[in-house]
From TrEMBL:
Species whose genome carries this gene: Brochothrix campestris FSL F6-1037
Organism superkingdom: Bacteria
GO molecular function terms noted in the UniProt entry: ABC-type amino acid transporter activity; ATP binding; ATP hydrolysis activity
Protein name per Swiss-Prot or TrEMBL: Amino acid ABC transporter ATP-binding protein
CC annotations in GO: plasma membrane
Classification lineage: Bacteria, Bacillati, Bacillota, Bacilli, Bacillales
Topology with respect to the bilayer: Peripheral membrane protein
InterPro entries with a match to the protein in the record: AAA+_ATPase, ABC_ATPase_HisP-typ, ABC_transporter-like_ATP-bd, ABC_transporter-like_CS, MetN_ABC_transporter-like, P-loop_NTPase
Compartment(s) where it occurs, according to its Swiss-Prot or TrEMBL record: Cell membrane
Record domain ABC transporter: where: 2-239
Keywords, alphabetical: ATP-binding, Cell membrane, Membrane, Nucleotide-binding, Transport
Length: 243
């Protein structure tokens, strides 16, 4: 489903991503962990072209781009392959919960309002928030906002769903409810990349785990091998610090 080759991104004098190579199979859940500033979020942003890489190529499904020259059509095609859940929700404050979920379906994908509403209510039911459909984001808790953001991401039926530290902005008591929803999503075998600091969660839901540091992939392996038999000293130090 995803093939990343020699992906490089520099901001000023700082190389944030350096020759990243990674392949992810259809239906696979891959978790990316690592210290702050290691390039994890930038990698996700490059996948849906919120950030344009300086070099390298990305394939998502049947869509392909070669950096850095990308046409408007290529950008649109790539962006339609994936949906992203941000750490700070990115909900439209002036729209109801229901409208937040239907907005892209109606304005971008040209669904009828009735069909989009039906889809939204089904997804809100899945995340346990159908009764909040007519409320506005400011009336919700942080955990509820993130569950709405997940429903919105799923609405477009993406080939890939990207989670960028989805619990980092939440109070500790709200983290579990969001992790449960994400776990239910990955059980549907939607191809997923999750950037997180929740290592116990990563161990529970991932097929493979990737450690990034200093803009590079230090180690990636199956989940059991990664946690039980890390190969690199940097990985051992990172896991020891978090444990």
């Amino acid at each position: 489903m995803i093939k990343i080759e020699r992906l490089t991104k520099t901001f000023g004098d700082t190389t944030v991503l350096h020759n990243i190579d990674l392949t992810i199979a259809t239906g696979e859940t891959v978790t990316i962990i690592g210290p702050s500033g290691s390039g994890k979020s930038t990698l996700l942003n490059c996948l849906n072209l919120l950030v344009t890489p300086d070099e390298g190529s990305v394939t998502i499904g049947e869509a392909f781009y070669q950096a850095p020259k990308l046409s408007k059509k290529t950008r649109l095609t790539i962006r339609r392959q994936s949906a992203m859940v941000f750490q700070n929700y990115n909900l439209f404050a002036n729209l109801t919960v229901e409208a937040n979920v239907t907005e892209a379906l109606v304005t971008v994908y040209r669904w009828s309002k009735a069909t989009a509403t039906q889809r939204a209510l089904e997804l809100l039911n899945d995340v346990g928030l159908r009764d909040k459909a007519k409320l506005y984001p400011h009336q919700l808790s942080g955990g509820q906002k993130q569950r709405i953001a997940i429903a919105r991401a799923l609405a477009i039926k993406p080939n890939v769903i990207l989670f960028d530290e989805p619990t980092s902005a939440l109070d500790p008591e709200l983290v579990t409810e969001v992790l449960h929803v994400i776990q239910s999503v990955v059980k549907q075998k939607i191809t997923a990349i999750i950037v997180t600091h929740e290592l116990a969660f990563a161990r529970d839901v991932s097929d493979r785990v990737v450690l990034m540091a200093d803009g590079q992939i230090v180690e990636h392996n199956t989940t059991a091998a990664f946690f039980d038999h890390p190969q690199h000293e940097r990985t051992k130090q990172f896991l020891a610090a978090f444990s």
